[in-house]
């Protein structure tokens, strides 16, 4: 006896899901009630995302978006340390050197996934518990809701491969040499010049500060996330409004660091003034002229970074401030390919991951040597190879 088509589709979907809920899989995809749940499952690699994971997550989001019985999408990470620490740059740089298409495929498909999240018609809830950097930002920040916890560590450290003396995983999984995955869209839209400051210094926000900066929409105690997830799943035919109401109810009950001043509050006047400059040379001059302990510290940080990536990032943010997410991602794809062709991305990976001398030799070595013509060239369309969304 033939089953009705709708029933058969449900069974086939269940069989497909069961393949992905194997606990050894890199990404787990499951349907619970009206919720589609994505779990990044590489805890030893701090849930860094690779091309295989992207190729599982993207079609599933598109399927759930069209499914009348899926009302919201939840994404989270396993292991308790990270939501997602980025993309595996060692693999990408090896591919670039060997002439493999992986360097093109990874960025093209990652940005396509970022755009799918940014345009998703179903409420999308990212539980950014733990390290959220690089590619992990792209998996979360463009969705409707981002829930930070006291364990969240947020940064866009791409300009600083070679600068951070952090645990290896912090630098192993940055995705490039500019704040990509739509950084050119969301960073310049943060209050004042916070986004410019984060992009050009790699400064890390932690806990409630991620929400106070406007990156997370809510702040919930890490231990309460399982209960929040169950309550989200239990919502009957949830709308964006009902999901927001539930998240708000958890948010207002949380008292951790509630009275604590935003970490950048005392510096915001300087940040807004200094980072309003139109060129990196002017920003550096502003920092020198200011001469405060804060300014000197930023100057020391910037001087260790790739001059090329600093110039690319500043222009990326200035242009991205008035562009759509679609156009920003197309621009960033051009930049990603310029970085793959260039010197500094591979040099940064060498200094941090291969030789581990933590002393990258940038070419050009100074801001003044990075010409406007070179920067212009990195932003040029790629013809048939452009990212099409």
TrEMBL record:
GO terms for cellular component: mitochondrion. InterPro entries: ClpP/crotonase-like_dom_sf (IPR029045), ECH_dom (IPR045004), HIBYL-CoA-H (IPR032259). Transmembrane segments: none annotated. Pathway: Amino-acid degradation; L-valine degradation. The keyword Mitochondrion applies. The keyword Mitochondrion applies. Its main location: mitochondrion. It is an enzyme of class 3 (hydrolase). It comes from the Eukaryota. Its EC number is 3.1.2.4. Residues 36-164, 176-379 form the Enoyl-CoA hydratase/isomerase domain. It is found in: Mitochondrion. GO terms for molecular function: 3-hydroxyisobutyryl-CoA hydrolase activity. One of its GO terms (biological process) is L-valine catabolic process. Pfam families: ECH_2. It catalyses: 3-hydroxy-2-methylpropanoyl-CoA + H2O = 3-hydroxy-2-methylpropanoate + CoA + H(+). Keywords: Branched-chain amino acid catabolism, Hydrolase, Mitochondrion. Belongs to the enoyl-CoA hydratase/isomerase family. Hydrolyzes 3-hydroxyisobutyryl-CoA (HIBYL-CoA), a saline catabolite. Has high activity toward isobutyryl-CoA. Could be an isobutyryl-CoA dehydrogenase that functions in valine catabolism. Also hydrolyzes 3-hydroxypropanoyl-CoA. PANTHER family: 3-HYDROXYISOBUTYRYL-COA HYDROLASE, MITOCHONDRIAL, 3-HYDROXYISOBUTYRYL-COA HYDROLASE-RELATED. This is 3-hydroxyisobutyryl-CoA hydrolase. It comes from Crypturellus undulatus.
